[in-house]
Each structure stands twice: as C-alpha cells, then as structure tokens.
UniProtKB/TrEMBL annotation:
Modified residues (4-aspartylphosphate): 54
GO molecular function: DNA-binding transcription factor activity; sequence-specific DNA binding
The protein's name: Response regulator
Residues annotated as domain Response regulatory: 2-121
UniProt cross-references to Pfam families, sorted A to Z: HTH_18, Response_reg
Lineage: superkingdom: Bacteria
Keywords tagged on the record: DNA-binding, Phosphoprotein, Transcription, Transcription regulation
Single GO biological process annotation from the record: phosphorelay signal transduction system
Keyword Phosphoprotein: yes
Residues of the HTH araC/xylS-type domain: 154-252
InterPro entries: CheY-like_superfamily, Homeodomain-like_sf, HTH_AraC, HTH_AraC-typ_CS, Sig_transdc_resp-reg_receiver, Tscrpt_reg_AraC-type_HTH
C-alpha cells in the first residue's frame, strides 16, 4: 500500500514512519509534505493509495487541502485520513464531508494505526483508479474519427480528456487558452456540431458507462471518478444522455451477463 504523509512537523512525520514500520503490513511511504500546498502537489504527482493529513498546517491547512481535493476531484482512488486533536474534531467532521474516509486522534499509536488500516486497507486495495490515459485515449479517438484539425477545438477536446474528473467551467477553460468564452463556445459548436457542455457531459457519461460495466465500482464511486460530486446531478445528466438512470444501466449490464 502506497502512503503519503502530510504534516508540518518533521518529528511527527518521523514518528509516524517508525510506528508504521512496526505494523506487519505492506505499507510504503512514497512521499512526505510539510504543508497543504506541497501536499496537493504530491497528491497530483504520486496518486497514493492512502494519504494521512494533519489538520493544522501553514500555507494551506488540512481542511483547505480537502476542500481543494473535493472541488478538483483530485486522486479519487486515494483514501484520505485526517490527523486531529480532540479540540479539532469539528474540523475533522468537515473534512469528511469533503471526502475524507476516516480520522485519527493524536498522539498516534501502533494500535490506532492497526485498527485504521484494518478498516480501510481492503477498500484501498480494491478501489482501483481510472486508468491514467483513458481520457486522453478517448479524446484522441474522437479527434481521429471526426477528423478534427482545428487547433483550438483540438486543444479543448484534449483538455477535457485530461481534466474530466475536475470541475470544468467554460470560462476557466477559455481563459486557459487566452480566448473569450463566446468565441470558444461558437467555434466548438461549429466544428463538432455540439456544444462544449454537451460534449463534456457525453464524454463523462461514456466513461461512466465503461466503469459501471466493469462491475468494479459503485455508482457513487463512478460519479466522483468522472467529475460529479453530487450523485443526484450525476444521475440526472446520465439519464439525459442515455435515456436511463445509472441504476437501470447497471441492471441491464447484469442481465446481459446472466444471459451469456
């Protein structure tokens, strides 16, 4: 199990590493960060199985880090665990609303860590991330099948392929490519025959269908993995694109497998 340790106190990080060595588990510390900003960078780079995150840190605290993780749909396969003191318990509860799966009270102990990993290890091992290049591959296939040569439209489609799991807004994307949202919207529709938002929704739903059909993920997990933090909204978008809810789609997949 690959673990990222995010805590501003070097002695705490070293002490936690020593405690982890005492566990009879295959746990590898793949990185450390001393503040939330560095922690975000390491999460993007390493995509660990588990991240232990302290609440109180300079630059960006653990709560702010978890808020960005939630908003950016960052490393959705990672299990986020909050390290907190008794007096900070309310902060830990807020962090869990942002996607943290568990919390530990300081000071840490071998027993507390053993109990933690007994709870989350099976889920961390089973929770496979979306293949890193699946979005890029599907974007490339779309560009080739439609024979799209327009530079900006190609860039917009590739951007979606790399960032579909994040909160994508046309204004932000247009700003990223130094064009106006109106121009980006108009040229996208002219070249592809569909709007930017419609393409984004269709792209996410196609990925969601593939993940659901694999049988490895729950609907709520798939929603998060393709960029939807709200399950109700994901279901609404899925039905608007496919004509059926994610649940109905999943049941049809199960029925087809039984018939084979």
């Amino acid at each position: 199990m690959r673990l990222l340790l995010i805590d501003d106190e070097e002695m705490i990080r070293k002490g936690t590493a020593l405690l982890l060595q005492q566990l009879e588990m295959d746990i590898q510390i793949v990185g450390e960060a001393e503040d939330g900003e560095e922690g975000l960078d390491k999460l993007r780079l390493l995509a660990p199985d588990v991240a232990l995150i302290d609440i109180r840190m300079p630059m960006k605290n653990g709560l702010e880090l978890m808020k960005e993780v939630y908003e950016q749909r960052l490393s959705p396969a990672t299990k986020y665990v909050i390290l907190t003191a008794h007096s900070e318990f309310e902060y830990a509860q807020t962090a869990m609303r942002y996607g943290a799966c568990d919390f530990l009270l300081k000071p840490l102990s071998v027993g507390a860590l053993q109990e933690l990993f007994a709870r989350i290890a099976p889920a961390a091992e089973e929770n496979k991330a979306v293949p890193a290049n699946i979005g890029v591959t599907r974007s490339r296939e779309f560009l080739e099948s439609k024979q799209i040569k327009h530079e900006l439209v190609s860039q917009l489609i590739q951007y979606i392929g790399m960032n579909y799991m994040k909160d994508i807004q046309l204004n932000d994307v247009a700003d990223h490519f130094n064009v106006s949202p109106v121009y980006a919207s108009n040229v996208f529709k002219k070249v592809t025959g569909t709007t930017f938002i419609s393409y984004l929704q269709q792209f996410r739903v196609e990925l969601a269908k593939a993940l659901l059909a694999s049988g490895e993920y729950k609907i709520s997990e798939v929603a998060y993995m393709v960029g939807y933090g709200n399950l109700t909204y994901f279901s609404r978008v899925f039905k608007s694109v496919e004509g059926v809810t994610p649940g109905d789609f999943l049941r049809s997949q199960h029925d087809q497998k039984r018939l084979k």
